C-alpha cells in the first residue's frame, strides 16, 4: 500500500512488475497501469473537472494560470486542465512548473515572489495549483501576502488541512481545495473514523486529512483482499473492484 508522489509510484510499479498487488491511495496522473495495481484516488479530470466547471460558472473566470511542481502528476494535471479550461471558453495565460525538489541553495520564497509577479503581469483571474507539500504551503503564504490575493481564485488538488496549517491559514476567501474528504465533514463514517483516531493518538495528533484516510482505506483493502484469498497480482484489480463496490 503506497502513499507517495507519482514518480515514486511509477518506479515501484515497474519494480514490483505485477508480482504482488499494489494499492496506490492518493490522486494520480491517470493512464494505463500494470497488472495488480489498484488506484484508490482520482485522475486529474475526475478530481478537478467538477471544481473547474463550478468555479468558472460561478465567478466567470476567463484567465487561468497553471502552477505546479515539475514531475509526472502536475504535468498530467496541466495537460488535462488546459483542455478543460479551453472547453469552458477560457484561456491559460501562464503555465509554470517549479523544480522538484529545489536545488540546494535555492530560495523558494524568493522564487515564489517572482512567480506571483509573473501571475500579476499575465492578468491572471484564477490559478490551478498542483504544487505539493512545503512548496504548496510556501506559495500560499507568499500569495496571501501579495496585492492581488483577494481578487484571484486559487484551486488545488493537493491542499488539505495540514498544508493549510503550514501556510498559516488563509483569509482571502478565494482559496479552494478539491479533495475527497475534509476533517469537518459530518457523515457517519468520517465521524466514527475521527473518533477512533483521537482515541488512539490523542487530541494533539496531526489532523486526519484525506491523504491519511486514503492510507487507512488502502490498508483495509489489502487486508480484505487477503481474507478473501485474492492476494494474487493477476486477480487483484477485479477483486478490489468487487470489494470496493460492496
TrEMBL record:
The keyword Ribonucleoprotein does not apply. The keyword Ligase does not apply. Residues 1-229 form the Leucine-binding protein domain. Keywords: Signal. Gene3D superfamilies: 3.40.50.2300. InterPro entries: Leu-bd, Peripla_BP_I. It comes from the Bacteria. Pfam families: Peripla_BP_6. Belongs to the leucine-binding protein family. PANTHER family: ALIPHATIC AMIDASE EXPRESSION-REGULATING PROTEIN, PTHR47628. This is ABC transporter substrate-binding protein. It comes from Actinomadura bangladeshensis. The lineage of its organism: Bacteria, Bacillati, Actinomycetota, Actinomycetes, Streptosporangiales.
